[in-house]
Amino acid sequence: MSQGQKFFDDLGRLMNDAASMADGARREAESAFRGQMERIVNDLNLVKREDYDALREMVTIQGEEIEALRREIDALKGGEKTE
Question: Sorting pLDDT into bands at 50, 70 and 90, what band is 1?
Fold first, then answer.
């Protein structure tokens, strides 16, 4: 192996090592950022989207049931409405 070839092989290894280190640092920074964001979200007591959607659906269904019961009560009273 010539000196020039060895130089480029060493340079290639060095660049690969630097890229690996940069990728590791990036993953570590992302992990730290994600952990910090999770702590902030937990401190704010935010509701998860799935929980919000489930509650919204339950409220909608209950509202429809209440309206149906009101109509049934009105029908039993002979169509008379009371406020």
Answer: low
The distance between the two most distant Cα atoms of the chain, rounded to a whole number of Å, is: 105
Q: Tell me: the pLDDT tens digits for 17-51?
A: 899 999 999 999 999 999 999 888 888 888 889 99
3-state secondary structure the chain: CCHHHHHHHHHHHHHHHHHHHHHHHHHHHHHHHHHHHHHHHHHHCCCCHHHHHHHHHHHHHHHHHHHHHHHHHHHHCCCCCCC
Structure tokens at 46: 């935010």
User: What is the CA angle 32-34-37, rounded to 5?
Assistant: 110
User: Looking at this protein, which amino acid is placed at residue 38?
Assistant: E
pTM value > 0.85: no
